[in-house]
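Try this one yourself first.
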């Protein structure tokens, strides 16, 4: 192993060390109350070292979100690769994918939704912002391919499949954030999975052609 390769591995190891520490701190204190100093202490590093890897807290948090977006894309590609799915199986697989993404890391997912609708995006480097944008768009495009199959075989109404993808993502993010808000205000909260199942059932009925309902 060459010197440069060892340096790159050490840099990646340190970066992962910081991200693991950040997740622990965010879990305990929440994003708004956590500081870079808190994260540095948890990682047993100096605050200055953190800034060698992440220019601010927003960038560090956004980097954690990449894992969820990568997982989402992998799961959607798996669904798209499944041969001969019936329309009902397509919808069922999409619903299970969305729930699996939530289960993968609920805390980071919730805050990722908040991050993507906030001014904090302006604090990210162009490279990180581009990576988030590309992963998000690739996921939506892959989901659209799944709907396109249903449109082509006459099962779904002939609408823009990307619009279907947007609706599913909006549906999913809205349900996750609403259930989270009910917990914060100590309101009675439904099972997220139960709510998601009902939402997908209604959505599926809406996109199926009349003769197939």
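Now uncover the answer:
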């Amino acid at each position: 192993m060459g010197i440069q390769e060892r340096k790159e591995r050490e840099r990646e190891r340190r970066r992962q060390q910081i991200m693991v520490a950040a997740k622990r701190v965010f879990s305990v204190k929440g994003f708004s109350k956590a500081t870079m100093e808190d994260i540095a202490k948890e990682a047993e590093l100096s605050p200055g070292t953190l800034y060698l890897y992440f220019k601010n807290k927003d960038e560090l948090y956004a980097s954690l979100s990449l894992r969820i977006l990568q997982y989402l894309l992998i799961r959607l590609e798996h669904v798209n690769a499944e041969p001969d799915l019936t329309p009902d199986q397509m919808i069922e697989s999409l619903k299970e994918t969305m729930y699996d993404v939530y289960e993968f890391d609920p805390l980071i997912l919730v805050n990722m939704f908040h991050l993507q609708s906030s001014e904090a995006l302006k604090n990210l480097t162009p490279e990180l912002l581009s990576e988030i944008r590309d992963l998000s768009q690739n996921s939506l495009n892959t989901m659209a391919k799944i709907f396109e199959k249903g449109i082509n075989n006459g099962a779904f109404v002939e609408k823009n499949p990307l619009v279907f993808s947007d609706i599913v993502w909006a549906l999913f993010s809205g349900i996750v954030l609403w259930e989270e808000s009910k917990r914060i205000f100590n309101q009675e909260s439904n099972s997220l999975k139960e709510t998601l199942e009902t939402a997908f059932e209604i959505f599926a009925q809406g996109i199926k052609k009349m003769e197939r309902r």
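Discussion: The mean pLDDT is 89. The longest helix spans residues 3-29.
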